[in-house]
Amino acid sequence: MSQGFRTRNLLISHPNMNKLALYVSFLHLLFAHAVAQDSPPPYIAPDYILLNCGSSAANSTSLDDRNWEGDSHSKFSPHNIQTISNSSTPTEQIPSVAQVPYMTARIFPNNFTYSFPVSSGLKFVRLYFYPAKYADVDKSKSFFSVTANDFTLLRNFSAFLTMLTLEPPAAVVVKEFIVPVLRTQYCLNITFISLDSYAFINGIEVVSIPNNLYMDNTNGTGIKFVGFDTIFYTFDGTTTLETMYRLNVGGKDVSGVEDTGMFRTWVDDSPYVLIDNFGITAYDLPNDTIQYTTETPSYTAPEIVYKTFRSMGINATANLNSNLTWNFTVDAGFNYLFRLHFCETLQEVVYLNDRVFEIFINNQTAERDADVILWSGSRGIPVYRDYIVLIPNGNRRKLDLLLALRPNVVSKPQYEDALLNGVEIFKLNRSDGSFGGLNLDGLVVPTSPEGNEKLTERKRTSLRIMAVIIVISASVIILGFISFRVSKKAKILGSRKVGDSNCLPLPSHLCRHFSFAEIEAATKNFDDGLIIGVGGFGNVYKGYVEDGSSTVAIKRLKSGSQQGAHEFTTEISTLSKLRHRHIVSLIGYCDEDREMILVYEYMNCGTLRDHLYSTDNPPLTWKRRLDICIGAALGLEYLHTGANHLIIHRDVKTTNILLNENWVAKVSDFGLCKIGPISVSITHISTAVKGSFGYLDPEYFKRQQLTEKSDVYSFGVVLCEILCARPPLVRTALKKQVNLAEWFRECYHEDKLDEIIDPCLKNGIKPECLKKFVEVTMSCLLHDRSKRPSMKDVVGGLQFALQLQGSSCDSPNFPELDD
Ligand SMILES: *[C@@H]1O[C@H](CO)[C@@H](O)[C@H](O)[C@H]1NC(C)=O
Ligand SMILES: *[C@@H]1O[C@H](CO)[C@@H](O)[C@H](O)[C@H]1NC(C)=O
Ligand SMILES: *[C@@H]1O[C@H](CO)[C@@H](O)[C@H](O)[C@H]1NC(C)=O
Ligand SMILES: *[C@@H]1O[C@H](CO)[C@@H](O)[C@H](O)[C@H]1NC(C)=O
Ligand SMILES: *[C@@H]1O[C@H](CO)[C@@H](O)[C@H](O)[C@H]1NC(C)=O
Ligand SMILES: *[C@@H]1O[C@H](CO)[C@@H](O)[C@H](O)[C@H]1NC(C)=O
Ligand SMILES: *[C@@H]1O[C@H](CO)[C@@H](O)[C@H](O)[C@H]1NC(C)=O
Ligand SMILES: *[C@@H]1O[C@H](CO)[C@@H](O)[C@H](O)[C@H]1NC(C)=O
Ligand SMILES: *[C@@H]1O[C@H](CO)[C@@H](O)[C@H](O)[C@H]1NC(C)=O
Ligand SMILES: *[C@@H]1O[C@H](CO)[C@@H](O)[C@H](O)[C@H]1NC(C)=O
Ligand SMILES: *[C@@H]1O[C@H](CO)[C@@H](O)[C@H](O)[C@H]1NC(C)=O
Ligand SMILES: *[C@@H]1O[C@H](CO)[C@@H](O)[C@H](O)[C@H]1NC(C)=O
C-alpha cells in the first residue's frame, strides 16, 4: 500500500498539474482505502499499453504495480530499432525519481515512429520524460517534435527547459493528450522528430477512453461558448486535447490507479484557490455512495472527486461580498474546454433553489443560475458541465484565467453559497493540428552558470523572435510573403529610429506629410464640435486644410497606446499606395511630437448605417442600395486581390462603409484596426457579436484566425441589413438574442423573408432580383469558409441582381446599370 503511494508522488508530476503534496497523510490513506472498497468497478480500457522505452526487459513493474513492456523487442517498435536508435540510462540518478519508466530512455538522432495498433476512438496518450544527462548527449540541446497520426502534440519541445518551468520544481515531465483514432486508421503512430541534436523518451502510455466521455456531441446544441450567448461549439471528431489541469476540488490528490480505469491523476485544488476566500472543504465524507447515471456514468470521475468539494462557507453575509476563485495560467491564442464536476452531498441541500450560484470563467458569465439539484435531480447524483473558453492572442503569451463562483442573489436561494467538486481544463489544438511551440515565459533560471548563460541567450532569442512576430502581425496582414522575407523586413524597420521620416519608406509622392501646426489649425485645436467619430483608437475630426478650401477627416490616434510608431509608419506606407474608387483615400499623416495622425478624404454623406437605422434621413431606394453594396464589394475585392498583397479588412460593417456626396460607397478603416491590438481583442469580439449583430465570422471562434473569407461573411451581414434594415428585423433579432445572420437564415428557411424586408422597399424589388440578392447573401453567410464565394463572385452576383432589377422594370426609379 505505502509503496503505491510513493509511486503516485513520483510517477505523476504533470507539468501543469504538479502541485502535488510531497507527503503522504495518514488521513489520505484512509480515504483511498474507503474508496477502494465501495467504488463501482472501473472501466476496462480495450487498449491499454505501457511502454518502457529504452528497456530490454520484457516486463518491468512500476511502483504503482503496473507492468511496463520494454520497447527493445516490442511489436510497437520498428524492426530496425537497434540501428536507428540507442537505449540509454541517465548518468544522474535522483532517488526521488522512479525506476520505471524513468531510468531507461530511448535516444533518437533522427525521426522515429512507434506504431500502436489500436481500436478507433479517443485515446489518452501520456508521454513521460526525465530530462537527465544520457551518455554524452547534452540535455539542453535536445529539441524535438512529437506527432500522433495527423496531430502535432509537441512542437520544438525541450523536456529540459519545460522541466525548469515546473512549479513547484519537479525532475520529470509528463504530458497528457487526448487523441482521436479514426475508423480508417487502425493505428496510432507516435513519431519523434529530432530537430537539433536528438530526441528522447522514457515512457509512453496509451489508454482507451469510453465513447461519449469527452468531446461528445450527443447534446445537439453543442457546448456553450462562454461570453457569447448565441454561439455554441461542436466537436467534429478532428480535435486533440492537451490536459492542462485536473483537480479534485476540496479533496486530496488521486493517483492514476485510483482513477476509474483511465489512470488520470487528479490533484488537490488548494494551490489554485485565491487566498482571500479559501472557502471550506468537506470534513466528513458522506457515507452514501455516489449514484452514477447514464448521463454521468461511473467512469466520469472517481467517487472521491464527487464526495469532496469546496464551498464558500456558512457566513452568508461574507459569501455575498466575495467570490470563490481559482487561478489558472494558460497560453494565449487557444480555445479551452472546461469541464466542471458537481455533486450535492450535504444532508441540508435537498430541494431546488437550495443552493444557486453564478459561474464566471475569465470574467465572463458561464452560468447565471447553477442549481446542482435542478441539474442532477437529487443529492448524491453527480453531474458535469462543459464550456468552451476563447483566450485570444494578445500582448502576453501566458494569461491568468480565473474561475469564480458566487451566490446568485436574484433567485433568493435557501443557502447563499456556491459549490464545486472537480475541474478539468484542456487546451484544444489549433487549426494546424498543433498546440504551439515552446513557451519560455516564466522560465526559472538554472543554477549552473553554464546552463544559465545558455538559457538567457535562448530566452533573448525567443524574445527577439516574439518582437518580430508582433511587428508583423500588427501591420496589415500580408500573405504570400515567405517568412524569411518578413522577418528580414521587420528587423530593418525595427532598427530604425522612430519619427525620423528620412529613414522611413514613406511615399511622399503618394501621401502628404502634415505638420502638427497644420493639423491643429485644421481642427481648430481639436475642437470637440468637430468630432465626427469616436473609436477605440481615438477621435475622428472634420478638418479644413489648404486654407479651408479642402475638407478632410482627421483621425488622431490616442497617444500612449501600445501600438508603436513602427506599425504606424508601416501602415501608412501600405495604405497610401491603395488607390481605388471604392476605398477611402489616405491623403496624409502627421508624426510629429509622438502624435500619430492620419488624414483621409472627407465623405459628405456619412456612414451607410446612418441611412439605414434610427435616422431622419429618407430611406434609400433599392437601386441606390444595390449600387452602394456593389461599390463596397468592389472596394473589398480590391483589398483582397487588387493591391500588391492580400489585405484583410477584418472589420466590415455598415459603419465602415462611407458615402460621398454622389452616393459613391467607399470602404474605410481597414488598417486602423491593425494598428491597434495584434489580434481581435476580446472586447472587439464582444462588441462585434453583441453590439453589431455579429459581423464576426463564426469560424473565427474555432480557428482564431481571420481570412479574406471572414470579410465575405461580414459583408453578408451587411447585405442582410441592406435588405432588411429598418427596425422590424433588428428589433426581433435583438429580442430573441440571436445574431442577425442566424435570424436571416432562419427566416429564409422558413420562407418568411418577405416579413422582414424593409417595408420601405416592399414594392420596389423585382422578385428575380430579390432571389439573386438573397442567394448571394446566403452564400456569403455559409458556415464553411471554403464554400463562401470570393468577393469577385459577390460583385458578379450583385451586378447580375442589379441587371435583373433593371431589365424587368420600366419604372423610372430603377434606371439601368450605369457603370
Ligand atoms: C508481465 O508480468 C505480468 C505479471 O507479472 C504478466 O501478467 C504479464 O503477462 C507479463 N507480460 C509479459 C509481456 O510478459
Ligand atoms: C549509439 O551510441 C553510440 C555511442 O555513443 C554511437 O556511436 C552511435 O552512433 C549511436 N547510434 C545511434 C543510432 O544513435
Ligand atoms: C522527419 O520528419 C519530418 C516531418 O515529418 C520531415 O520533414 C523530415 O524530413 C524527416 N527527417 C528525416 C531525416 O527523415
Ligand atoms: C527550437 O527552439 C529553440 C529555442 O527556442 C530555437 O533556438 C530553435 O531554433 C528552434 N528550432 C526550430 C527547428 O524551430
Ligand atoms: C502508421 O505507420 C505505418 C507504418 O509506417 C503506416 O503503414 C500507417 O499507414 C500509419 N498509420 C497512420 C494512421 O498514420
Ligand atoms: C446541452 O447543452 C446546453 C447548452 O450548453 C445546456 O443548457 C443543456 O443543459 C445541455 N443538456 C444536457 C443534457 O447536458
Ligand atoms: C456516517 O456514518 C457514521 C457511523 O455510522 C456516522 O457517525 C456519521 O454521522 C455518518 N456521516 C454522515 C455524513 O452521514
Ligand atoms: C460574516 O461576515 C461578515 C463580513 O465579512 C462579518 O462582518 C461577520 O462578523 C461574519 N459573521 C460571523 C458570524 O462570522
Ligand atoms: C494568478 O497566478 C499568477 C501566477 O501564479 C499570479 O501572478 C497572479 O497574480 C494570480 N492572479 C490573481 C488574481 O491572484
Ligand atoms: C466576482 O467575480 C465577478 C466576475 O469575475 C466580478 O465581476 C465581481 O466583481 C467579483 N466580485 C468580487 C466581490 O470580487
Ligand atoms: C478580470 O477581473 C479581475 C478582477 O475582477 C481583473 O483584475 C482582471 O483584469 C480582469 N481580466 C480581464 C481579462 O478582464
Ligand atoms: C485540430 O487539428 C485538426 C487537424 O489539423 C483540424 O482538422 C482541426 O480543425 C483542429 N481543431 C481545431 C479546434 O482547430
TrEMBL record:
GO terms for biological process: response to metal ion. Residues 526-801 form the Protein kinase domain. Its main location: membrane. InterPro entries: ANXUR1/2-like, Malectin-like_Carb-bd_dom, Prot_kinase_dom, Protein_kinase_ATP_BS, Ser-Thr/Tyr_kinase_cat_dom, Ser/Thr_kinase_AS. It holds the Pfam family PK_Tyr_Ser-Thr. The chain crosses the membrane at residues 465-487. It comes from the Eukaryota. One of its GO terms (molecular function) is transmembrane receptor protein tyrosine kinase activity. Residues 1-36 form the signal peptide. ATP binds at residue 555. GO terms for cellular component: membrane. It is a single-pass type I membrane protein. It is found in: Membrane. Keywords: ATP-binding, Glycoprotein, Kinase, Membrane, Nucleotide-binding, Serine/threonine-protein kinase, Signal, Transferase, Transmembrane, Transmembrane helix. This is Protein kinase domain-containing protein. It comes from Carya illinoinensis.
